[in-house]
Amino acid sequence: MKLNKIVCLAVLCSVGSRMTAQETYPFRNPQLSVEQRVDDLVSRLTLEEKVKQMLNSTPPIDRLGIPAYNWWNECLHGIGRTKYHVTVFPQAIGMAAAWNDALIKEVASSIADEGRAIYNDAQRKEDYSQYHALTYWTPNINIFRDPRWGRGQETYGEDPFLTSKIGESFVLGLQGDNPRYLKASACAKHYAVHSGPEKNRHSFNSDVSTYDLWDTYLPAFRTLVVDAKVSGVMCAYNAFQGQPCCGNDLLMQSILRDKWNFKGYVTSDCGAIDDIFNHHKTHPDAATAAADAVFHGTDLDCGQSAYLALVKAVKDGIITEKQIDVSVKRLFEIRFRLGLFDPVEEVDYARIPVSILECRKHQDLAKQLARESMVLLKNDQLLPLQKNKLKKVVVMGSNADCRESLLGNYNGQPSRMLTPLQAIRERLNGWAEVIYIEGVDHVDAVPENQLKEYMRQSKEADVAIFVGGISPRLEGEEMPVSKDGFDGGDRTTIALPAVQTQVMKALAAEHIPTVFVMMTGSALAIPWEAKNVPAILNAWYGGQYGGEAIADVLLGDYNPSGKLPVTFYAQDSDLPDFESYDMQGRTYRYFNGKALYPFGYGLSYTDFTYSSLNLPKVCHTTDKEVQVTVTVKNTGRLEGEEVVQLYISHPDKKILVPLTALKGFKRVHLRSGEAQRLTFSLSPEDLSCVDENGIRKVLPGTVRIQVGGSSPVPTLATPLKLVESTLKMIGNTHIIDK
């Protein structure tokens, strides 16, 4: 008995002395610099321990008191894939449709608060599993170059400027403004030149001109790295110009690390290191592939085993341990900047409680963003619906009562959410009978006898609300779906599934006024609907308040103000080859055809006019900025918000330039009859052009400035309502970015 007590006492003394030693290590001292602490910690690790810390799921280092950490977490539009109930905002493409970068910053900050609360709670419970960390692999700032790409829903649209502004706001909100600690770590992905196809992304080689690379594919990444100071970057699956992106000389070394001086960490996309030797076949085995990725600055392997081969690579002389140290130090620097090794009392964020999850402030932000994301595409005086004039309302369509299509992908789960059907029923309770007709699938045809029964049930309806479109279970990351129009996560056609047009044609034949509510993560071709359906509302995947936002707009409780962040084409033939990354003929910047609904388009229940556009007539190429002022007035009966957009073009340039390019936007709220004078500042970079060598310059010549917003008449190829003027740039060429 005494012997057992002595043994126990010896063990306790041993543990106590070990803990005391851990607490006195220099890396535990918050008063030292992050660099000093990282150097001390890494110096204490064995090679095997270092390599294991370069996997996304890192094991604990018990002898140093370092807990396990899983880097992989998601917060695309709210904390994703967790057992906790969280606030779910509109899918990223819906965020972009709000054109409200200030709101996006608030939203991202609230997401970080919820993420911190979950992390803090999980730490107390010693839960180190996936989706509980503070390193979020968001935002996706790839350019949505082709509407057939299923993951385009995760992006902020087709325009580099809009993507840059929203992405920057998201990063600033997520990472916080504490000078010492990150609230959370953001990650710009997928670097770079990556936007489908999904089925062959593990072996695909993208290749674009130097002009397209710098004019379209890199600006948003540069903004997030250089201006927003994003702490992480994810390299893409595909190869670029023959080299896998995670081991690419130009992208990873010349541009990211050297030109942009990126000091943060780089993670591979999940399985991308394995792709290097299994699919790209540029390297013979895991050891050479892993070593080359580390050479190029890929610090973390989102994978199970590829980087474990680094131990062999060091022993075989392929890479040195000192080179391994560079990556390990970058990774631990992020964890120290998050305050993960500091006492709770040192880190304000470490005290955020779980009570903040789904708090009223976050719910209000989700509701506001859902409302602002709604884009009214057409309205032949049918909307808003008048409650006191409705007796019978028919609601039908594949998304009418579908929770999945509100939540998008990479989503969390809220504790409260109303589908469009539920929200419409709630709003019309006591006003009108709401009949729900089930059975209309997204894609599968409706038998003729069944369609006749639907029309019988719809007889004498004052209005039919058809809630259709597509679903994040049809488009998205490698979705295993092979149906008409969909293949492996991408779409084989941009056309609305024929069954939905069939049903709306039947409603038209019965002379039932119809509102088409379209839920989608990308542009759909709807030429028949655009011509024949009285009202069309694009609602994206609207998050937990998407259903209520739809009801708010339809019934006049909110005046729609969203604008399209992508071009809605009329037909498949408008699109170049899906696998071509050449921007010629793509997006509003290079598309010469007639769009069904153009980029930046979106109607309101009121009218806005533009006047008194004022700007200098002559400027020097070296001027710091150009001031542009314009007056916008609400000339309609209702108060509302307008997104004022500024575009520039270079009509006399002999080099390749966009047809027109967004360079500014402001969201303004105006009462009926109210006018406001707005000022935009154009920097030299805004006025610059990219030459064939990727050098951005301000060139002498004419610059056309156009400012406007919603189009008054929603017909095919209707342009934005614009006022315009020109200025002359004189002087020598001004190089902005070598």
Multimer state: single chain
Low-confidence stretches: 1-19, 711-718
Strand coverage percent: 15-25%
Structural class: alpha/beta
The percent range for helix content is: 25-40%
| Main sheet overview | 6 strands, mixed
What is the tally of beta strands?
Answer: 28
Mean pLDDT: 95
The helix count comes to 22
Q: Give the termini separation.
A: 78 Å
Note the overall shape. globular
Could you tell me the radius of gyration in angstroms? 27 Å
Spatial order of strands in the largest sheet: 9-17-16-12-10-11
What's the arrangement of secondary structure elements?
Layout: H1 2-24, H2 34-43, H3 47-52, E1 57-58, E2 69-70, H4 92-97, H5 101-124, H6 160-175, E3 187-191, E4 205-206, H7 210-217, H8 219-227, E5 232-235, E6 239-240, E7 243-244, H9 249-259, E8 265-268, H10 272-278, H11 286-295, H12 310-315, H13 321-337, H14 360-373, E9 375-379, E10 392-396, H15 404-407, H16 420-428, E11 433-437, H17 448-458, E12 463-469, E13 482-483, E14 486-487, E15 490-491, H18 498-509, E16 514-519, H19 527-532, E17 535-538, H20 546-554, H21 587-590, E18 608-614, E19 618-620, E20 626-634, E21 640-649, E22 661-670, E23 675-682, H22 684-687, E24 689-690, E25 696-698, E26 701-709, E27 721-730, E28 734-737
Parallel strand pairs: 3-5, 4-6, 5-8, 10-11, 10-12, 12-16, 16-17, 19-27
Antiparallel strand pairs: 1-2, 6-7, 9-17, 13-14, 14-15, 18-20, 20-23, 21-22, 21-26, 24-25, 25-28, 26-27
Helix pairs in contact: 2-13, 5-6, 5-14, 6-8, 10-11, 16-20
